[in-house]
Amino acid sequence: MNIFVVNEAQKGRQFSTEKRCALTPASAKKLIRLGYTVTLETNAGKAAGFSDSDFTEVDVNVTKDREIALQKADILLYVNCPMPEEVSQIKANAIVIGHCDPFFNQSLIEDMAKAKLNTLSIEMIPRSTRAQKMDALSSQASLAGYVMVMQAAKALPSILPMMMTPSGTIKPAKVFIIGAGVAGLQAIATAKRLGANVLAYDTRPVVAEQVQSLGGKFLHIDIGETGQTKDGYAKELTAEQKQIQQDAQRDAIADSDIVITTAQLFGRKPPVLISKETLSFMRPGSVVVDMAAQSGGNVEGSVAGKTKTIGGVTVIGTGNWSQAVARDATEMYANNLANLIDEFTDSETQSFNLDLDDEILAQSVITHDGAVINDMLVNAFKGAK
Ligand code: NAD
Question: What is the domain-level CATH number for residue 267?
Answer without folding.
Answer: 3.40.50.720
